[in-house]
Amino acid sequence: DCLRGLVGSEMCIRDRDKPVQDSPKTKMTSGERRAVLGLAGVYGFRMLGLFLILPVFALFAEGLPGATPFLTGLAVGMYGLTQAMLQIPFGLLSDRIGRKPVIFGGLLLFALGSAIAASADDVWLVILGRAVQGSGAIAAAVMALAADLTREENRTKAMAAIGMTIGASFMLAMLAGPVLGRLIGVSGIFWLTALLALIGIALVALVVPTPTHSRVHRDAETVPAMFRRVLSNADLLRLDLGIFSLHLILTALFLAVPLVLRDLGLEPVRHSMLYLPVMLGSVAAMVPFVIIAERRGLMKPVFLGAVASLALAQLALGLFAADFWGFVAA
Predict the structure, then answer these.
(1) Is residue 221 scored above 80 in pLDDT?
(2) Of 216, 198, 158, 211, nearest to 42 (Cα)?
(3) What 8-state DSSP symbol labels residue 184?
């Protein structure tokens, strides 16, 4: 939280040398574990549905009436646009009417958008479905509910558990997406996404406790009074731009990589056999640098090295687009 600027600098200075250990006061209660498990499941199922589309949509869109490269990209990106527009308003709404009603409504919108995309017979309906999917922007409300249901000393554990679920969903989707695309088609994946959203509603209703009271948590949700300060912080803006660029690159890659791999002779159903070793290798390469950055105080050099590595990899992907093993290495 200190590194991400989620807590005040005085807290970071005060607590940075304290040993991290569980005590009876910091161990999660059964209610906290139940809340974290349920909310992690909601996040995981929702993100799994989104990620399943990434490795197969570009191939699917080629056969859609009216599809162009631009409209294919718009169909993928429209989800993020509407989510970005509504994330903060939905978070603020959850302060007024409660967390669960906002989460229920957002998941219903997500399911509705999935159903629209699944029933689409042209690219414009898919774009509409993706826009409705993104309008179910519940991330802020989920984080706020997690904060309501966990004590401050366990907040980091709760957020970490949710984050791990998102990472696991991405890896599972990269493996399952190409296979499901072959078995049930992309429309089937959209229907599956709608079902996952409904499972998320059931988790919130039956597993996640209802908080006795809700309040604003400065470390977990939007605080309108902080807008001006946050938007005028040059360091944060640079990080915002970096995160924006990283997600842009990731999304753009999945519009191009499946097509390149197919053209290089790798059947779409076998793409997951390439994604798995690439992801495992990337994690294995990443961990030592994270340890070095943390233990030796080299956060910025490692960060800049990662950015440079990404730039070189992007260049290599372009140079080796006609060579299978060169492309795999890149």
Answers:
(1) no
(2) 198
(3) T
